[in-house]
Amino acid sequence: MTNAVGEDEGVVDKLREEIDLTESNLSGAMQGIADCYRELQGGFGRGYGVHAKYRESNVQTGRPLTELAVELAAWAAEIAAKSAALDVRRALLKQLEDED
Question: How many CA atoms lie within 13 A of 26 on its CB side?
Fold first, then answer.
């Protein structure tokens, strides 16, 4: 094995690790935002910790929703940006794997 091939394999391995970690983080973020939306919609999520403020202000309570909805929209935008970055990493990994 040449040094260049070993370096390429190292890059591919590192990229795979980054992708795995990003997938895990995105899955958690998506589950978290889904729980928050369920709480805000009707108090049907976990109802504790970060989710408690959404349960306390769910649609049926008549409390203001705008601030929480804007907060969730910002979180959704962050998830979308991280998803786009993941797509780029996956495309790069596929390209590197196809070169082998």
Answer: 17
